[in-house]
Amino acid sequence: MTTKICANCNNVFEAIGNGSQNMKYCSTCRPFSRKLKDLRRSLTRPGAHGKIPCPECGKPMCYNARWCRSCWHKKSVELKAYPQGRKHHWYKNGKPKTSEGYIRVKQSNHPFADHHGYVLEHRLIMEQHLGRILDRKEFVHHLNGIRNDNRITNLGVVTTSNHPRDTLRKLLQKRIRDLEAQLSQQKMC
To answer: pTM above the 0.85 mark?
Structure first.
């Protein structure tokens, strides 16, 4: 048991038990000792509480950073830290694909553009062909079932009520019936 002076409140206290030679705080100050250490450490860093002004814009930034977050982003674009446009590894001739296989085109001013400004290409092609914007209830159907085949001969406008399901299977079944009908006509002749 040793008598010590608290480093925070300067009260005398008795240090008892293992590690008593390392005790710096009394029993009332000990629960706050971690916060006190952190506060003292932050006050010794440049700037109060670890924040200093950004050299570009003056916003508060972390003491060990070059710029604040917004200036860092601007600088990284200026310095071409990240490849953009044609140099980016996701670039696909300006027409990215969705996870379902549809091709998207950048058209920020389109009424049905998503939050990134992209519209499905097959909808744009059908709208240009019809000369009007499609309604929300109208869908563009790929007749052969290939979602990136956006030729106008492969597209048709349907609604939810008459949108055919299992399209490719139905087309193949129809083709088989037509061929069987042709064969039966040839056998009759």
So the answer is: no
CA–CA distance, 92 with 82 (Å, rounded to integer): 17
Q: Are residues 21 and 37 in the same domain?
A: yes
Name the maximum alpha-carbon separation found in the chain: 120
Q: Which pair of structure tokens corresponds to residue 95? A: 């027409």
**Domain count of the chain?**
2
Which two structure tokens, joined as six digits, stand for 11? 């009260």
Structural domain boundaries, residue 34 = 2-44
pLDDT tens-digit readout, 117-170: 899 999 999 999 999 999 988 889 888 878 888 999 989 888 877 776 656 667
Tally of residues, the chain: 189
Instruction: Say how far apart CA 34 and CA 21 lie, in whole Å.
Output: 18
Distance CA 7, CA 43 (A): 17
Residues 56 and 40 placed together within one structural domain of the fold: no
